[in-house]
Amino acid sequence: MLQEQQQQQHQNIHSQEQQNVQQNLQQIHVSQAHVNALAQAQAALQQQVVQSFQQQQQNLHEHLQAVQQQQIQAALQRQSATLQELQQQAQQQQALNQASKVRMPRARAYNKPRGRMTAYAFFVQTCREEHKKKHPEENVIFAAFSKKCAERWNTMSKKEKQRFHDMAEQDKQRYDLEMQNYVPPKDVKVRGRKRHQVKDPNAPKRSLSAFFWFCNDERSKVKANNPEYTMGDIAKELGRRWAAADPDIKSKYESLSEQDKARYDREMTAYKKALEQQQSVPEVHEEVEEYEGEEC
Fold first, then answer.
1. pLDDT tens sequence across 127-139
2. DSSP letters of 44-67?
3. Which residues have CB under 8 Å from 112's CB, separation 6+?
4. Count of beta carbons in the 10 Å neighbourhood of residue 61
5. Crossing angle for the helix pair 142-155 and 119-134, to the nearest 10 degrees
6. d(C-alpha 195, C-alpha 100), whole Å
7. What contacts 229, CB < 8 A, 6 or more positions away?
8. Which of 210, 208, 218 is nearest to 238 (CA)?
9. 20 to 30 A from 231, CA-CA: which of 52, 254, 275, 288?
10. What global pTM score does this model have?
11. CA distance linking residue 296 with residue 291, whole number of Å
12. What confidence tens digit (pLDDT) does each residue in 192-233 have?
């Protein structure tokens, strides 16, 4: 009986030892798996750190390239702006040199009326005033501006130019009227005065344009409202009023102008025919003088 108990205890001890051994083996296996997992995690983390470092290096390289490109573009823009400024200065200097070579007009004689302006001169003056209103601080290059004015004038229709021709005709009348009353000083020599051809009093009176018919009606109103105006001021005001007139008002005066032109054409045809008839009639007194000379 005692022997059986001992055997049983011995078996229990042996079984307990086997269980302990198995538990230890299991713990060792779990520890090994944990070590392997830690090693894999460490490797993955190291790989992630390497990739992150490489990405940062690439981003830094791209950023440096972008900054360098921006700096290069900014330097090119500064050089381009400097070059443009130098070109503008050269053009202005060239324009000044050309202007200095142009002969300056002689000073007008004392109290002499201002010379009459052509239609193109009125057009250039209008363009200059319009440009000055739109760009008051811009320095106008005379050569380039004159070229643009000439190109624009050449492309304008006759109807568009008529306004400036009317202004020139009005200014011519102003000049002729002022010159009639002008007496030059004794110490001033009047040079280059042309001999005016004597006008035939029987010749038909020239037809008036629509602008002149308009001026005939409006001139007295302008004088009454502005008694201090000179002839030139009145002409400018009439031109401004004509430019701002309604189409119906312009149509009225254009109709008067067409009627007056038809009248002038009829009278001119009759006048030329009368001149031809006079030239065809022999002069009797000349023939008598020649005959008397032969007798002598």
1. 888 888 888 887 7
2. HHHHHHHHHHHHHHHHHHHHHHHH
3. 182, 184
4. 10
5. 120
6. 34
7. 222, 223, 237
8. 218
9. 254
10. 0.36
11. 9
12. 555 555 667 778 888 888 888 988 898 899 889 998 888 778
